[in-house]
C-alpha cells in the first residue's frame, strides 16, 4: 500500500502550477467525440458485414470517415503523449522518478483494455497502454529536436517503406498480403449470444485487432504522435497558450494545405509505383502510407483549428467539452457498454435496420447526454469512476479522494 501523500491535482492533466489544463481536457473531449462518431455509423464494427450501397447513406458514412476516421484516434494518441509528460513532470517535482509507477499504471490500463476487449473487439485502451511503455526511455532524451525527428520518422512508417523497397526489388515476403486483409467480421456477432461474442473476441478478435494495428502502421503512428505530444507538453504548448497563438494559426493553414494536396494527389502518386500480379504490395502500401499522411494532416487541421477556436470566440462553447475530457476512460467504455448490445445479436440487433444517418443522430444525442452527465458528475466527484479506480490502483491505496468537499474549489 502507498503510505505517502496522494497527489490530487487531477488525473495527470495538471500544468506546472498544479492547475488543470482545461484546453487539453477540452481537446481530449473532442477526440472522444470523434471516436464515438466513427464507432456509431460503423455500428461498432458490424457495418463491415454489409456495407451500405444507398448513395445518401454512403455519403453520410464517407463524410464522417473523412473528418474523423483515423484522425480522432490520432488526436487521442497525441494527448496521451502530453499526459505522459505531465505525469512524469509531476513525479520530478515531488523528487521521485515516476517511471516504475507509470509502467504499473500502464499495466492497469492494459488490464482494463483486455476486459473491455471481451465486450468490444475494437478496444484501444490495451494498444495505448502497450505503446505507452515505449515512451519511458524517451523521457530521458532531453533534446526536443531529436524527439521530433524520431517522431517524424515513425510517422513516415519506416517498416512500410522498407517493405515497399523490398517488394520492388522482388522479395517474395514483401509481396505477401498482410494478415488483416483476410480478416472478416464473424457473423456470429450479429446473430449469436453474449457468450459467442466473448468467445470470438478471445479466440480471434484480439489477434485480428493487433494484426490490423501492426499491418496498417497504427503502432508506429501511435508512438510517433505520443512523442510529439510529449514535446508539446515540454514546450508548454497547452500550459502557455498565449505564447503559441501564431503557431496555431500557421499550423492550421499549413495543415489545410497539406490535407488538400494529399486528398487529390494520394491516388495519382500511389499509381506511379510499379505494379503487377506478382508485385502488388508496393503500390498498395504506398497508397496506405499516403492515406495515413492525409489522416495526419486532417488531424493537424482538427488540432490547430480546435485550439484557434478555443482560444478565440468559441471558448465558452468548446470548454463545455472539458468534463468529457476529464473522464474519457469512463465515457469511452460506457459508449460500448451501451451501444454494443444495441447493434449485436444478443441485444437489439439493430445493425440490420439502423441507417447511417440514424446512427449519427443517435451518436450526437448520446454524446450530448454523456456530456451532461459529466458536468453533473463533477459537481459531486473529483474523478470519473474508472479514473478513480485507475488512480487508486496506480497508488495502490483506496485513500485517493473521490467525493468533492462542499465549498472546495473545482
Structural class: mainly alpha
Mean pLDDT, all residues:
92
> Stretches where pLDDT falls below 50 for ≥5 residues?
1-12
Separation of the first and last Cα atoms: 28 Å
Q: Count of DSSP E strands?
A: 0
Helix content: 55-70%
Order of helices and strands: HHHHHHHHHHHHHHHHH
Question: What profile does the largest beta sheet have?
Answer: none
What is the tally of helical segments? Answer: 17
Query: Which strand-content bin applies to the residues?
Result: under 5%
Please give the radius of gyration in angstroms: 22 Å
What characteristic shape results from the CA principal axes? globular
Characteristic key phrases:
410 residues; mainly alpha; 0% strand
